Amino acid sequence: MDDSKNIILVEPDEIASGYKYWKEAGQLAKSIVVCSDEYDLPEFQKLFYFYPQHPQRGDVYVRSPFRNDTFYEVSQFQDNVVKEKCHCLSKIASLLGASSFNASIEVESVKERGWDLNVGMKTIKVDGDFNLKRQEAERVTKKCLISDTYKKEQLTIQGYEKAIQLAKKYGLYGDPDVRGLLEKCNPIDCSMLSHEKVVCNLTSEVNSSLDLAFSINAMKGVFTIGANFVEHTKYRFEILEIMEYNFD
Predict the structure, then answer these.
(1) In 3D, which of 48, 108, 50 has the Cα closest to residue 74?
(2) CA 203 to the chain's CA centroid
(3) In this predicted model, what pLDDT tens digit does every residue of 38-52 receive, in sequence order?
(4) Largest Cα span, the chain
């Protein structure tokens, strides 16, 4: 399976091998792999990490944007992407000589996904979305809140280079906020950064994959689409991650 395949749907072999003959198959995102639970899944489990570990028929797993070998069940994808990014940035902060790192979540907006047989996925604004935004922000923050304190260490060239390599490994080196932090902490420039507050939008990292997964609705009568999938792809949240770095 090549790297462009970011979504795995587990189905019986007769569906996995025959779904392409349905006319609706043309509306499926190209990044979706329909996986036979009998033949394909055992091989995939040798190549990739699945969380939770035992995929079942009808399950949808989405590849982590930060770990190419890891797939999360769709109901846990958003939360784990937030956690992964926070943990990575916290580690980068420690390598840059930070004394603490704190992360929290805000939900900027929410829309509801819908499927149209003619145009595919569409989104509509949710009326009275204040409570929904607040509830989602509280839920994600409760699960993903990170507050780390480090033993203060002198920034070194080696630590700085490790921070750059870690940012590249997680695909974050192109992020202007991450690149900006690295540039400000460059020990060659003798920068004296004491505090940095960064607000990042997680929309592309979370929603791009979930939007693609939503195209599974094109074959609702063929695939097993469970309540879990429906519940966790219904709303499209614009998530902001607020991160504070302290170097005092």
Answers:
(1) 50
(2) 9
(3) 999 999 999 999 999
(4) 63
